[in-house]
Amino acid sequence: MRQKIFAICDTEEAYAVRLMEYMIEKVRLPYAFHLFTKAEELQRFVQREKVEILLIAESTLRMLREEYVRQQTRQIFVLQESEGAKWDGIPCISKLQSPQTILEVMAESASELSDWNAPETAAGTAVRLIGIYSPVKRCLQTTFALSLGQILAREHRTLYLNFENYSGFGQMLKRDFSADMMDLMYYFRCAKDKLPLRLSAVTQDINGLDYIPPSQSLAGMREADGSQWLELCRYIAAIGQYEYVILDLDDALNGLFDLLRQCYRIYTITKEDSFAVAKLNQYEQILRFHELEEIADKTVKCRFPTFKEIPAGLDCLTHGELAGYVKAIVREDLYGE
What we know:
The protein is of the alpha/beta class. The chain is built from 15 helices and twelve strands.
């Protein structure tokens, strides 16, 4: 079967190329992407091909036989170049917005495009979930999880998900997030057909590792249970074709044990002080009480040496002493070398 066509047309070549590069990187959907920087090129193309989605600059569309282009295109989005410009029946998006925002607006209008859905087999995808959880606090859990994710991402498509109530991600990365994990959970529950493109718009990157901004809503996180989080994780993995999903887990997560049970491997960081030992012992007692020995069986306890220096930035965790420690774990535990 021939791939459906996603076309971008804008005579401003540098802008069109950047937008196309972003789309190819972010939109992991079954489309063949075509770029046009001359109106006549697009005009000739639609004479012989049907276009599924066309993202076109306002000024470029004015050069074309609009009605004919409409007939040959299933869904058109206009990139506005003049304030207040409107097109009958065509969604308009300001060209001045970021590519991420353009994707978000497109997602809102994608309900009729059924093939933007993830595969029906998404829930059964063979992704490996890796859980990072410790009852001991301030133990470098998130630093370890991000380092592990960045190292895996060098050779495998890897996604990092943070379930902490107060992650501090925005401040640490000096970024403002327009959407987060709870937005994806909303679409998963209420508008699953829009989730694939919404995922593309929300997903961020840090040193090659994909991540979704953690939820800013404490109440929202508690509304979902472990089975819902698990289903969402697998659905996201199928859409993004991820091989590994790193789950940075927190005590307050509803359904913590449900997620841990489904993990391929669990890493629990320990310390030597008496409080840390007592907390770990209590955690293991609870696992035995609830007959969750399978979680203990898949758990690797990590007791870190004293590191002289930890990288200050979250985007440079593939170098240094901690990274060396993590690389040894990947080689021995995940790759079996």
